[in-house]
UniProtKB/TrEMBL annotation:
Entry-linked HAMAP family: PhnW_aminotrans_5
Family: Belongs to the class-V pyridoxal-phosphate-dependent aminotransferase family. PhnW subfamily.
An MF annotation (GO) of this entry: 2-aminoethylphosphonate-pyruvate transaminase activity
InterPro entries linked: Aminotrans_V_dom, NH2EtPonate_pyrv_transaminase, PyrdxlP-dep_Trfase, PyrdxlP-dep_Trfase_major, PyrdxlP-dep_Trfase_small, SP_NH2Trfase/AEP_transaminase
Segments forming a coiled coil: none
UniProt protein name: 2-aminoethylphosphonate--pyruvate transaminase
Cofactor: pyridoxal 5'-phosphate
Annotated keywords: Aminotransferase, Pyridoxal phosphate, Pyruvate, Transferase
N6-(pyridoxal phosphate)lysine PTM positions: K191
GO terms of biological process kind: organic phosphonate catabolic process
Quaternary organization: Homodimer.
Residues annotated as domain Aminotransferase class V: 66-312
Organism, as annotated: Roseicella aerolata
Record flagged with keyword Transferase: yes
Length: 365
């Protein structure tokens, strides 16, 4: 049996070279693994041109762990975070901050509307107590792309610090830290970088990170301490997921060989165009306006004329080798199909043929 194609926001379909890189036992204190960690950190910084200004701090765990760790490390008692929320991941940032006992304010938009820089500027002007702003670059809840450059400019003009959840965009949608004023970029191994799950990482302005000693109320999520450890002897403080590191380094080499983020974005954009055109032909409509859709993951409405039960639709596609993703919306009956991972236009065309066959089957059932 061949492996299914994962049309999800991650974990997703990876290349065989990436999975093969895991077929080895690495000693976590051995020079070979120390060199691998150094290559990992340098390559992650290079993806966002952050080498001159930022430090890369990897952390064991999923993406949420690095979000929590970054907030814990950078938000001091007395600081106040403004979260810009138009989906579940913005709300998660607010929930984490609240649980940590740090002050947080949430500015909300509907799930199908982008963050508006003008409202952000007004909120920052109205409350001088706000010190940091959190933005989700691509809201994976819907697949909406928020206006990063415009929001970053507004936050910088107001003299505040921007924390960016770039979990589902990093590696594909360009983030250039030489020109973009962002204090911290957070992402993980298993989305557009096409690695396997198990590592989150933050690229943090070095001056800010250096001043964050003892801020984190957590030992294992303290990114200042994690960074100091890595700088001291190149080693992780606690057991690193060695195979995940090896896979991510291989995935980063493959990203470079592909042509970097611009080439990856072009491939994902072609996947997305193929998917959207085909799904529309089959009677599905896109949840978002086209202009707001990032080529990462697309949310489709269930057809009103012929509402499908998601579980049946999922099982029928899974039986044909394609794993899709449930919707995450509070308001509408939807499902999602990812455009990212080691997949191309031909895979999307095969998926569309499978969707068409399933629809035919369900119509005659
Ligand atoms: C995937 C994702 C996360 C982290 O989710 P995990 O399940 O913890 O990996 C955070 N923010 C966004 C925007 C994401 O897409």
């Amino acid at each position: 049996m061949t492996d299914p194609i994962l049309l999800t926001p991650g974990p997703l379909t990876t290349r065989i070279e990436t999975r093969r890189a895991m077929l080895r036992d690495w000693g976590s204190r051995d020079p070979a693994f120390i060199a691998l960690t150094a290559e990992l950190r340098a390559r992650l910084l290079a993806v966002a041109q952050g080498g001159a200004t930022h430090a890369c701090v990897p952390l064991q765990g999923s993406g949420t762990f690095i979000v929590e760790a970054t907030l814990a490390t950078l938000l001091r008692p007395g600081d106040k975070l403004l979260v810009l929320a138009n989906g579940a991941y913005g709300e998660r940032i607010a929930a984490i901050t609240r649980r940590m006992g740090r002050a947080v304010e949430v500015l909300r938009w509907p799930e199908d509307r982008p963050v508006e820089p003008g409202r952000v500027a007004a909120a920052l002007a109205a409350d001088p107590g706000l010190t940091h702003v959190a933005l989700v670059h691509c809201e994976t809840t819907t697949g909406l792309l928020n206006p990063l450059a415009e929001v970053a400019a507004v936050v910088a003009a107001a003299g505040r610090r921007l924390l960016l959840d770039a979990m589902s965009s990093f590696g594909a949608i360009g983030i250039d830290l030489r020109s973009l004023p962002v204090t911290a970029v957070m992402a993980s191994s298993n989305k557009c970088l096409e690695g396997v799950p198990g590592i989150g990482f933050a690229l943090i302005e070095r001056t800010v990170l250096a001043a964050a000693e003892g801020v984190s109320p957590s030992v294992s999520l303290d990114l200042h301490a994690q960074w100091r450890g890595l700088e001291k002897d190149g080693q992780w403080r606690f057991t690193p997921p060695v195979q995940v590191v090896a896979a991510l380094v291989e995935a980063l080499r493959l990203l470079e060989a592909e042509g970097g983020p611009p080439a990856r974005l072009a491939r994902y954009a072609e996947n997305c165009r193929t998917l959207l055109a085909g799904m529309r032909r089959l009677g599905f409509s896109l949840y978002l306006e086209d202009a707001l859709q990032a080529p990462i993951i697309a949310t489709f409405r269930m057809p009103e004329a012929r509402p499908l039960r998601f579980a049946e639709f999922y099982d029928a596609l899974a039986a044909r080798g394609f794993l899709i993703y449930p919707g995450k919306l509070t308001q509408a009956e939807t499902f999602r199909i990812g455009c990212i991972g080691a997949i191309g236009r031909r895979d999307m065309e095969r998926l569309l043929a499978a969707v068409e066959a399933v629809l035919g089957e369900m119509a005659t059932a």
